[in-house]
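To illustrate the input format used throughout this study, we show a single complete record. The first block contains the structure-token representation of the backbone; no residue identities are included at this stage. The design step must infer an amino acid for every position from geometry alone.
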């Protein structure tokens, strides 16, 4: 498959490739609703649990897709399907679009409750077990595994802890039972949250053998009893409270309670502001090492709050005009203990992260890229993603003329590609680098997936522009940008290993929200399918293959991940609805669904499936995961 002409072979956006000369009266996307409050949010407990979901969230995209699958005009019967070998699918797509526009105009009463679209677990009961023995500890062997699971998989992305001091206190705790002096209940609560997150990771990767019997809920309950409940609401701000609320939000994210996580994360962010972590630290009494640790903590809080805001489609509450904190130094955790090295780099000119003179130019260090370089790159990408949320998905963006939005999309795509080009070689997933450190494999994969997620956020508004009656350069821009969005979703599919080994993504990827990433890509591909693959008329079957791979991955992950299980059920239901209208062949998926009893049995006739038509299993060696 050839990439769109206005994009590079790897899907990157060509600078100045499209010169937009648009009709000033061009209308906004008919599918893009203004965010509005709905009555059930204040009247129904289930809707309150899920909370308001903004249009940047894949949950809103899924909601529209559910309506589309259930209410659009018939696409099968008198028309040929794009999945049966015909490329003449524009007429099908146009009729689908016109039917959807009629629904938008006349069918507001048929709006789907957002709660129905959610595959997260906020509706599930979440109560700590108050009968737990709060001061019990796991065996030293189990504790080390839990701590290592946390530190090696998530600390570098969201550095809530001062790693070296925390590890030292951990060793003192087990070296001097039952409890060394200076170990407070607050610190023990912090430790149990780390245990809970580490245990959750090991559960998802099926590496929980030889651990003590306590599950992640036990550790969370101990943290709750030890002091989480209510202390951050009325107490004075301190570093431990910032860490505890941040870790609690992180734990809630890992167990699928994203609305709760977002609310708690707001407390952590306010506590961080109350301590002044968002501004430059000019204290003469703090060492440069401590300043750097606190700086990284701020960026961990910022990044997690931004990530949660993207998932639920809500505003990020960091006012950039008030922030003067610089980006972290490109130093590893071990190098942070070198006071002289940190001092040397700290004395160099460091501009605030939100107001840089050279935003993508890094400080040169002799060593190869490390955790500090990775964190800096993640933060820069987070800042770009926040711009996307503000400039494309806010209320202010909705009232802008479409020609303005197209220019914003162009600028954001350029900024994203500048970020990619500036990545250190060992972190740049678009390059085939010889002798890349295996230590950075996790960081490269996470950066790759976050890049794809941001590209999808930038370009997705153009996917739904088909049938908007635009012409010329404006129409061409929308089509090429929509192709880039679908291309990005397909790139994510190439990162997936064989469906029987999907734990790979949880072992070295962003395991805390991997379902979010998969669903973003899946919904984009389902949207393209719903339009009759109008942006890729030559590749309808290939897009269906990508959809099937994502569906199978969610199903496989659902064995020990309830969020993935629910996402599979919801997405498969949408796919069945679209397949029946477009005459798409998914009998193999239906067979597998019934055979494994992952979802309720369907009252549907399933034809015999030829083994030669079965989904081809790909291994990671079959594809270059760093580019296309």
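Output of the design step:
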């Amino acid at each position: 498959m050839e990439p769109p002409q206005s994009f590079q072979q790897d899907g990157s956006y060509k600078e100045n490739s499209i010169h937009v000369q648009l009709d000033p009266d061009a209308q906004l996307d008919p599918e893009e609703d203004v965010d509005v409050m709905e009555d059930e949010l204040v009247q129904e407990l289930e809707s309150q649990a899920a909370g308001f979901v903004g249009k940047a969230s894949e949950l809103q995209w899924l909601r529209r897709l559910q309506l589309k699958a259930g209410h659009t005009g018939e696409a099968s019967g008198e028309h040929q399907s794009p999945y049966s070998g015909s490329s003449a699918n524009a007429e099908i797509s146009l009729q689908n679009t016109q039917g959807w526009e009629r629904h938008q105009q006349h069918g507001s009463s048929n709006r789907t409750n957002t709660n129905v679209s959610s595959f997260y677990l906020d509706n599930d009961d979440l109560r700590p077990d108050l009968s737990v023995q709060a001061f019990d500890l796991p065996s030293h062997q189990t504790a080390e595994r839990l701590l290592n699971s946390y530190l090696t998989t998530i600390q570098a992305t969201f550095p809530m802890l001062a790693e070296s001091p925390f590890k030292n206190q951990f060793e003192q705790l087990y070296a001097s039972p039952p409890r060394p002096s200076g170990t407070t209940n607050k610190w023990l609560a912090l430790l149990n949250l780390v245990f809970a997150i580490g245990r959750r990771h090991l559960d998802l990767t099926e590496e929980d053998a030889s651990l003590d019997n306590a599950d992640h809920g036990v550790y969370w309950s101990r943290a709750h009893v030890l002091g989480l409940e209510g202390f951050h609401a009325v107490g004075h701000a301190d570093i431990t409270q910032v860490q505890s609320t941040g870790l609690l939000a992180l734990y809630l994210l890992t167990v699928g309670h994203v609305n709760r996580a977002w609310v708690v994360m707001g407390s952590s962010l306010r506590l961080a502001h109350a301590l002044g972590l968002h501004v430059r630290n000019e204290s003469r009494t703090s060492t440069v090492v401590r300043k750097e640790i606190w700086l990284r903590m701020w960026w961990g809080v910022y990044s997690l709050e931004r990530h949660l805001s993207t998932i639920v489609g809500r505003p990020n509450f960091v006012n950039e005009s008030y922030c003067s904190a610089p980006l972290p130094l490109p130093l590893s955790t071990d190098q942070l203990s070198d006071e002289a090295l940190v001092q040397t780099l700290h004395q160099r000119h460091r501009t605030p992260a939100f107001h840089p003179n050279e935003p993508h130019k890094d400080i040169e260090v002799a060593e190869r890229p490390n955790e500090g370089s990775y964190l800096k790159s993640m933060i820069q990408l987070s800042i770009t993603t926040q711009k996307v949320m503000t400039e494309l998905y806010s209320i202010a963006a909705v009232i802008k003329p479409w020609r303005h939005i197209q220019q914003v999309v162009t600028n954001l795509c350029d900024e994203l590609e500048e970020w990619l080009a500036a990545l250190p070689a060992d972190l740049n997933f678009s390059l085939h680098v010889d002798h890349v450190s295996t230590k950075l494999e996790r960081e490269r994969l996470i950066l790759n997936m976050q890049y794809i997620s941001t590209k999808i956020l930038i370009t997705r508004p153009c996917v739904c522009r088909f049938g908007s009656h635009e012409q010329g350069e404006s129409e061409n821009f929308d089509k090429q940008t929509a192709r880039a969005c679908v291309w990005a979703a397909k790139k994510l599919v190439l990162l997936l290993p064989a469906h029987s080994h999907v734990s790979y993504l949880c072992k070295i990827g962003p395991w805390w929200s991997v379902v979010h990433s998969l669903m973003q890509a899946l919904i984009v591909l389902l949207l393209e399918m719903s339009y009759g693959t109008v942006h890729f008329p030559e590749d309808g079957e290939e897009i269906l293959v990508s959809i099937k791979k994502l569906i199978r991955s969610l199903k496989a992950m659902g064995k020990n991940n309830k969020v993935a299980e629910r996402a599979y059920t919801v997405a498969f239901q949408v796919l069945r609805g679209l397949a029946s209208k477009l005459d798409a062949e998914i009998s193999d998926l239906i067979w597998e669904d019934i055979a494994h009893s992952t979802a309720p049995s369907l009252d549907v006739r399933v034809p015999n499936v030829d083994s030669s038509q079965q989904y081809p299993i790909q291994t990671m060696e079959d594809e270059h995961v760093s580019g296309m």
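Structural context for interpreting the output: The chain has two domains: 40-122+387-601, 140-340+366-380. The radius of gyration is 25 Å.
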